[in-house]
Design brief:
There is one protein chain. The chain is an alpha+beta fold. It has a domain of about 40 residues. The protein has a two-stranded parallel sheet with strand order 1-2.
Length: about 70
């Protein structure tokens, strides 16, 4: 993987690209080793690059997802 990416393509947020870049790096070890731990209130609304998007994307690749639900922690 490169140390640096080219400028953002039109219509792509830096959050979305960063999430997908990290996911790609993790998948290089194999989907059976993929784990995603997130601090989330389980509400949508952030769109691409948000927690919900990453949660759904990791599940699509058969990774394990662990949600620390902020509505139940405090």
């Amino acid at each position: 993987m490169p140390d640096e990416l080219a400028p953002l393509p039109r219509g792509v947020t830096p959050y979305d690209r960063n999430n997908l870049w990290q996911l790609d790096a993790a998948l290089a070890w194999g989907p059976d080793k993929l784990r995603f731990v997130c601090l989330w209130n389980r509400k949508g609304g952030d769109g691409f690059g948000g927690t919900e998007h990453m949660y759904e994307t990791v599940q699509k690749y058969s990774g394990r997802v662990y949600v620390l639900d902020t509505t139940k922690l405090w």
